[in-house]
């Protein structure tokens, strides 16, 4: 199976190029071109093999939700000229990510299980089990690292360090909770629970914009609604749609992104299984049938689509 591990184009008027964990970002004077590659990361490490169709899945889910939430907050997206490409407004990104959690799962659960009762300055009650619903959605921000690991940070630390002004941060909080509420409603319509997610924001000409992707499997975790209560009552792992299954496989094989650890070998069958899980997630989250884009000469196809739009 063909995949798109990276791009390295040179476009007329291009001013910069940035290679993120998953996206290749081309800058122009006031626009950004984001190419969603098939790279996959976990524990802030890019894994050695790309996943066919993963970039298309992420890009199209992100566009789906950006279009569905544009009444809440302006977003950067202007057009999607190719299934792997998004083009929009160039913003100055805030140096924090707004992580919203409705349930005690993933990183927050690992911190809680280790005995912590405060995550990013937010107090949590005793007696919670893994995947329990929280009394209300909470915001647990992280720093946005260009390399290495994002770090937990509290609201108070963000303000005291001057990373974001109080007025802007209050806007980010309101937008994040409103987006999470909309995402929760849309997930419920598809028989899912939006467990947690992250949002990134930027500013252009004094306006705050929602940037990057939202409600994708790389930025979010979903549970299946119909079996949630029963599994919680029995203390069983939740059936979920996210890339947590990749993290769990890595942990089982001795990798958590820590120094001295090596990424376990990912064979063809496992790569294909990950690809199928991403496609399943697209269809379940959006309610739309996934149309596999042709993978012959994908770089040529992507380059032509961008040249037509810039």
Task: Describe what is shown at a glance.
With 310 residues, this protein is of the alpha+beta class.
Can you tell me about this structure?
It is globular and about 60 Å long. By secondary structure, it is α+β, with helices and mostly antiparallel strands. The strands form 4 sheets. Strands 8, 9, 12, 13, 14, 15, 16 and 17 form an 8-stranded antiparallel sheet that branches. A 5-stranded antiparallel sheet has the order 1-2-3-7-6. Strands 4-5 form a two-stranded antiparallel ribbon. Helix 1 packs parallel to helix 7. It has 2 domains: 16-92 and 243-309, Phosphorylase Kinase, domain 1 (2-Layer Sandwich), CATH 3.30.200.20; 95-201 and 214-241, 2-Layer Sandwich (D-amino Acid Aminotransferase, Chain A, domain 1). The model has no long low-confidence stretch (mean pLDDT 94). It contains 8 helices and 17 strands.
Indicate the topology.
Layout: E1 16-19, E2 23-27, E3 31-36, E4 41-42, E5 45-46, H1 54-68, E6 77-82, E7 85-89, E8 92-93, E9 96-103, H2 106-113, E10 118-119, E11 122-123, E12 133-139, E13 142-143, H3 155-160, H4 166-189, E14 192-204, E15 207-211, E16 220-224, H5 225-234, E17 240-241, H6 244-252, H7 268-286, H8 298-309
Antiparallel strand pairs: 1-2, 2-3, 3-7, 4-5, 6-7, 8-14, 9-12, 9-13, 9-14, 10-11, 14-15, 14-16, 16-17
Helix pairs in contact: 1-7
